Amino acid sequence: MESEIIRPGYLTAHQTARVLGISLGGVRKLVQRGQLERSGGTARQPWYAVKELI
Description:
Elements: E1 10-12, H1 13-20, H2 24-32, E2 40-41, E3 46-49, H3 50-53
Antiparallel strand pairs: 1-3, 2-3
């Protein structure tokens, strides 16, 4: 379930996965490898900065 309120310039994990064309598991792997950094949200519903994806 996606967060209802998110700051402009940030994406949920689901949105990030869609933008990158990967699964949620793929997003988690990128975070574990240090290739993507969480920019807010909570442990269960992290946000990712759009500028990190470009």
